[in-house]
Amino acid sequence: MGLMTANEYKKSLQDGRIVYYEGEKVKDVTTHPALKVCVDTAAIDYEMPEMPEYRDLAVVTLPSGEPVSRYYYTPKNSEDLLKRHELMVVATRLGSGVIPFSHDIGADAMNAVNITANMMGNKDYVQRAENYRAMLQKHDYSVACAMSDVKGDRMARPSSPKQNHPDYYVHVVKKDDKGIVVRGAKAHITAAAYCNEILVVPCRAMTEEDADYAVAFSVPANTKGVVQICHPIAGHRSKLDFPVDLPVRHHTDSLIIFDDVFVPWERVFLCGEWKFALPLVYNFAYLHRHTAASYRIPSTEAMLGAAAAMAEYNGIKEVPHVREEITDLVIYINTLKSLARASCIDFVTHGGIPIPNPVLTNMAKYHFATNFHTCMKLVQDIAGGLLVTAPTYKDYENPEIGDYMKKYLGGKEGVTAEMRLRMLQLMRRMMTVENEVVAVHAEGSLQAQRMTIYYESIKEVQEYKKMVEYGAGISKQQPKI
Ligand SMILES: Cc1cc2nc3c(=O)[nH]c(=O)nc-3n(C[C@H](O)[C@H](O)[C@H](O)COP(=O)(O)OP(=O)(O)OC[C@H]3O[C@@H](n4cnc5c(N)ncnc54)[C@H](O)[C@@H]3O)c2cc1C
What we know:
binds flavin-adenine dinucleotide; Butyryl-CoA Dehydrogenase, subunit A, domain 3; six-stranded mixed beta sheet; single chain; four-stranded mixed beta sheet; alpha+beta; globular
């Protein structure tokens, strides 16, 4: 089989999965008025191989001649990593700034599972990881990654008696010769409601006492005992908005409950090997933060484009402080792009699989996240207060008052009120609190990136220390240059 079409993907979701939205059980995620928007967004990944101009980017042909999604292909070199990076950027552009999310995060988790199995050297796990990859290549299933546990008391370990109950982290409650039974809940899991598979990995380092919590596995989304509760989305344009022909793109994230879920051994990738929870967490984070840095590029480009448009519309394009603000945005975006690309070129190999350079990747994600709010401030400064005070499309359409709006809300010569109001409407969709929180927390909190940068740089820092100790005459040993 190798590749699913968008229609086959949608059909595959009609599988009896248990999903709740706004307090009600969803009969069919593909026809539900809000979730349909998300399904259509995810389906872009399945449409790309059908578009001649994107097929080479989206598809890799295996030596067997079988075409498979590039996401499920094991990268061999920097060119493969750059192609995957480009695929995510292009897919996000097609999604008007929203990545489809049906393959990328699941592939990050699949690769992390594969790397960890290789590092462990456990033949069973290596075989299961490879079988899982082959299964995804064959069926082109969409995969969500469920890493973030609900956690309870953040300072208490998963198995600590200080936790109110033992189920704040997903853990094994039963084992037999057929498989394991797991219990717990994972939060914020993007696209899980409309993915075929849920790939579960731990979210932190584990100690020996936490061995039951050191568990990784995959289940089809319709497995008995898996219950998903989605958060609401703004999936439709308001009647108060100027109509736009392009579809609205959105995702929802699920709270996933694993209510004593049976998992057969062939789908278990970690079970009690607590020392390998951390390498799994880290390798997933390295890969996924690169995905994050990639899919953030189109949205930052849109911020700059909107700022440039409004500066022009309002006649302030050449004003010194506006030029400074545009320059800051250009630096912001190009630093992000350079770091994301450089991390592919300067890749490292973990468990036999090339991955984007972890320090550069975390710098890219951190740079994006920590400067995002400042960049929003720059865009807002250029846009002016009308960003929040503009009357609506309904007012504009009302013949009694529409002409006032046309006369008084125009910009510089040649710029109509409609142009300004449409651009401000687009900007309001970018300037949401949701986008601010996503920047800070999705793919790990800011501190998580700083910690990784610190620990991954320890060796490099020591080299510099040796260099200056030699330069200062403290050490006689000349470091390698
Ligand atoms: C839109 C969105 C989509 C997401 N998608 C996914 C997904 O698909 N899959 C997935 O697995 N996760 C996903 N996440 C989860 C994301 O990775 C987490 O939100 C992030 O790791 C922070 O965890 P938290 O939300 O539980 O916040 P917390 O962990 O509560 O963090 C809040 C603060 O507490 C600090 N903190 C927490 N624990 C400690 C500690 N032990 N010591 C010191 N400081 C601590 C943090 O550094 C941070 O400053 C998503 C999140 C968002 C917002």
